[in-house]
């Protein structure tokens, strides 16, 4: 796959991708929240983005907003067969992408004695196994090409322990571990690996949770917004090709 220079962009931090090889990207969980904001920001810089999530209508709306031949790939990433089909769609439309953003995630709270093990299974399937499947399929081709970038969306909970957060933390600590191992494996290959770990972000992820009844969580008005995280992700992606941002943590000032 040949690269072309990325032109246009919105200016400002992350507005233009300095790594001119980034012309195609895969964003999981692109139908809303951080993934949607990141896909839109990438599209504004001229990147052609494959949008992955379950809801085709929501993805179609994001694709329209991207406005530059974004590719809609509806799939349930917690299902192996869907991931296989999505990878075939990506291969057919974008080839091997320059950028993979493993963003899709599921969050629920519950003490270990209360949350059913099936909820842990669901969170691990989406937050840990699905990213691994995409990495397993795409990273060898990036290494063979000698360029590429994988960005894992972590969380403050990939390092810190909070009550009622065992299932989510298990996936996010695991995703951070996977990232750190991958970083070691990829050193010197030309393929970059970054972890972007935000604190609480005001997205629909919080809709099912009654924050008023849970002391210790900030109100949604005091969280980061999704655009701030998208800005950070695009800044990480836009460093010169020889610079790897290993880990970036952000929280509301
Ligand atoms: N919001 C926060 O406070 C916060 C803080 C730190 C880290 N994070 C992390 O940031 C990432 C994005 O979070 P967000 O806040 O933007 O969440 P969100 O608003 O709930 O969006 C989640 C995205 O994942 C997709 N998704 C959910 N289940 C899926 C499945 N089985 N297969 C494919 N796609 C699926 C959803 O689309 P469909 O419903 O269409 O499938 C949606 O696009 C997650 O990894 C999350 O853990 C969030």
In angstroms, what separates the terminal alpha carbons?
A: 41 Å
How many structurally independent domains? Answer: 1
CATH homologous superfamily (4th level) name? NAD(P)-binding Rossmann-like Domain
**How many helices?**
6
Question: In the CATH classification, which architecture applies?
Answer: 3-Layer(aba) Sandwich
Small molecules bound in the structure, each named once: NADP nicotinamide-adenine-dinucleotide phosphate
Sketch the topology as an H/E string, one letter per element: EHEHEHEHEHEEEHE
- Overall shape: it is globular
**Mean pLDDT score, rounded?**
92
Oligomer: single chain
CATH C-level class is: Alpha Beta
Tell me what you see in this structure.
The chain is an alpha/beta fold. It has a single domain, classed as NAD(P)-binding Rossmann-like Domain (Rossmann fold, 3-Layer(aba) Sandwich), CATH 3.40.50. It is 39% helix and 16% strand. Strands 3-2-1-4-5-6-9 form a seven-stranded parallel beta sheet, with helices on both faces. It has a two-stranded parallel sheet with strand order 7-8. The N and C termini lie far apart (41 Å). Mean pLDDT is 92; it is low at 1-15. Bound molecules: NADP nicotinamide-adenine-dinucleotide phosphate. NADP nicotinamide-adenine-dinucleotide phosphate binds next to α1.
